[in-house]
Design goal:
11 helices; about 5% strand; mainly alpha; two-stranded antiparallel sheet
Length: about 325
């Protein structure tokens, strides 16, 4: 009895910590999925015919259900990426932490290496056989490796996704979205810290341009700024004044603009900080924040910004 009681007392703190961690992970994952559902689920009104399958409902009842896939392949693929695959992306972040990983350089590199090993092995598969047997509906060729090959070779640019293509969503969520996300986080860890940390005014030869001048399509400048004016959690107001609580959110937004080629890359983090401070009053960010981990901001906003940037870019076509 004495031995058991001692073990119980020693384990209290660890159990409480793990329980709290698991609850926090579950809440974060639930909130992310809830946000996606709010954006994409559609209303459906029960008809008289539906009542045969749902006797507890009545005609006119409204429920939320999955969005139907558009008939046009490009539109269907956009919905697939932004909703179905995005759910799997959030799941991958959740599973990464649930396995005991932390967001540090070592854990991220191990995860990236595992993904790249899988990708390299998958690329050895004969795509022609994969495509031919897929069209003949042979189940083996609908596995994750074969879905990866179809996704990388543009198969769904001419073939409409089925409504909730589960295997393809799993593959795209892990081996495209989550993989890209990990590389962005790792880059923040590996960016060398400059010895000069004080913001210095640029010399006349390297005069910093305005943020708007960096945009490939300046006419759409306001469309991209609107992402920071979210009604529920605004980061800036209509006068471009910083009103958020986490300065890193704008960093995540800016870095994604660079990665997507929406804005030109500038010389260094000093210039990036100067540009943002000139654009957003009350921001006063240091260039060192670009080299910080910014894990919380990435977890909360990376996927949201990625989805919205894809939608905005679609307007140009």
């Amino acid at each position: 009895m004495k031995s058991n009681k001692t073990l119980e007392i020693k384990g209290i703190e660890q159990i409480d910590y793990n329980t709290k961690k698991n609850i926090d992970l579950s809440v974060n994952y639930y909130n992310a999925i809830s946000d996606l559902n709010k954006k994409f689920l559609v209303d459906y009104e029960f008809t008289k015919e539906d009542l045969e399958l749902f006797p507890n409902k009545k005609k006119g009842d409204i429920i939320k259900r999955l969005p139907p896939m558009p008939n046009e392949p490009k539109e269907a693929f956009e919905l697939f990426k932004n909703y179905y695959a995005a759910i799997q992306f959030e799941l991958q972040k959740h599973l990464f932490e649930e396995r005991g990983n932390v967001w540090n350089k070592a854990c991220i590199k191990v995860e990236i290496e595992a993904i790249e090993l899988w990708i390299n092995e998958t690329k050895k598969i004969n795509y022609k056989d994969c495509l031919r047997n897929h069209l003949n509906n042979i189940q083996y060729y609908n596995s994750e490796p074969h879905e990866f090959l179809r996704l990388t070779n543009g198969f769904y640019e001419g073939s409409v996704m089925s409504n909730y293509h589960e295997t393809a969503a799993t593959v795209y969520g892990r081996y495209f979205l989550f993989y890209e996300y990990l590389k962005v986080i790792l880059k923040e860890f590996e960016t060398p810290i400059e010895t000069e940390t004080k913001l210095k005014a640029p010399t006349p030869k390297e005069e910093v341009r305005t943020l708007k001048e960096l945009f490939k399509y300046p006419a759409m400048y306001e469309d991209y700024l609107k992402l920071l004016r979210d009604e529920d959690k605004p980061i800036i107001n209509n006068e471009n004044c910083f009103i958020g609580k986490n300065k890193s959110v704008i960093i995540v937004w800016y870095v994604l603009l660079e990665i997507r080629g929406i804005i030109e890359k500038v010389k260094n983090d000093v210039q990036r900080a100067i540009i943002l401070n000139k654009t957003f009053s009350n921001y006063n960010v240091s260039e060192s924040l670009f080299r910080a981990k910014n894990v919380r901001a990435n977890e909360e906003y990376y996927n949201h910004f990625s989805t919205e940037l894809t939608a905005i870019n679609g307007k140009k076509h």
